[in-house]
Amino acid sequence: MAHTLNYSSKSLLDVKFEPTHKGYDALEVDQVLDRLIDDLKFYEQYYNDSRNYIRKLESEIKELNDKIHEQEMEVAKVKNKYSGIKPGQVVTENNVDYLKRISKLEEALYKKGVDPESIR
Q: Which of 45, 89, 109, 111 is 20 to 30 A off residue 10, Cα-Cα?
């Protein structure tokens, strides 16, 4: 939207109309008002576009904050799940796979009504 503004606040204050015997030249005043209306239309469009862009960005920020919250919840679950691993222990991919398998087996036992803690 390439628009060259006709007036700044200072240049608008500096507009002088040529006096005539009845006041001012109506054509000259109309030309200034037409250019001023063009500027105002530009500002209105710019304002509306800016508001829409801000709303879009606010929506994106909310979506990203929701994703961050989901990720934080997932991290908390994983930390809780693997909290029994001590700092000196070596954790390999096999260990993690075993833990996942054990977790699935425990879930299957719970579904069948058996408490896995009672088996130990």
A: 45
